Amino acid sequence: MYFDRRKYKQFSLKQLQGRWGYAILISFIITLVSSIFDIPQLIRIYSETFRITAETYSQALQTTESLQDLYYELYNRLNEIRNTYGSFFEQLLRGAIDAVLIVAALNFFIKMSKTPEKISLSAFLEGFADWWRALLAFLWKYLWIHIWMLLFIIPGIVKIFAYSQTEYLLAEYKNLSPTKAVKISNIITRGYKWEIFVMALSFLGWEILCAFSFGIGYIFLLPYRKMTYINAYHAMLKDAVECGKISMEDLYE
């Protein structure tokens, strides 16, 4: 199969034509929720700024050296623990919530990809019923990607693309288990990981422009990107079935 990312992108714009409304609203919700998780990072930045300011001020006052050293040693130790564990749990929580949001959004966009008719917002809301499957899939992916990362960085990055179709499979096939979805994703992306990577890079210019728009552009970019990825997903899944890599029975447990 020829992985034609230009065709997927052009077709995605045709699919969205006249149906941008709910797609933008869903993108806004996802962007808003994701932005909330940037707040702890900002707090840490301000905290570090305060520490540096306090240190400079303390030196200016020429406080007792031994007490000052003790204070900063304790502060730095506590700060390291807070940043390490706080960052880990923040990333884990953010990843879990993002996974639930993504599966819910894909439930809407995959339905949009199958019909020229307008799709109601209820398709997005119905996707939240799969929250536990999305959560388990995220944890299973997270585990295996980190196991591969412990071996070497490159295999871990490769597995990120190998497991990238998991959420699409979960959104489309409601009886598919999270572990089976990860396994099938690994199968259907064989021979296409580099193409998926290049397709992701092709949106880099848009990402930069969106950054200059204070994030407003993301609510337009996300539907465009999601529909493009869905078109690629449909093509890879169809190719896997036609080539005998998987059977339709594998998708209906």
Please provide a written account of the structure.
The chain is mainly α and 253 residues long. The protein is built from 12 helices and no strands. The longest helix is centred in the middle third of the chain and has 49 residues. It starts with a helix and ends in an 11-residue tail after the last helix. The mean pLDDT is 85.
Write the element-wise H/E pattern from the N-terminal end onward.
Answer: HHHHHHHHHHHH
Characterize the biggest β-sheet: none
Structural class estimated from helices and strands: mainly alpha
Strand fraction: under 5%
Mean pLDDT: 85
Topology (elements, then pairings):
Layout: H1 5-16, H2 20-36, H3 39-61, H4 65-113, H5 122-126, H6 131-151, H7 153-162, H8 166-172, H9 178-188, H10 193-201, H11 204-212, H12 218-242
Helix pairs in contact: 1-12, 2-4, 2-12, 3-4, 4-6, 4-8, 4-12, 6-7, 6-9, 8-9
Features:
253 residues, mainly alpha
Write a brief caption for the model.
The chain is mainly α and 253 residues long. The two termini are 27 Å apart.
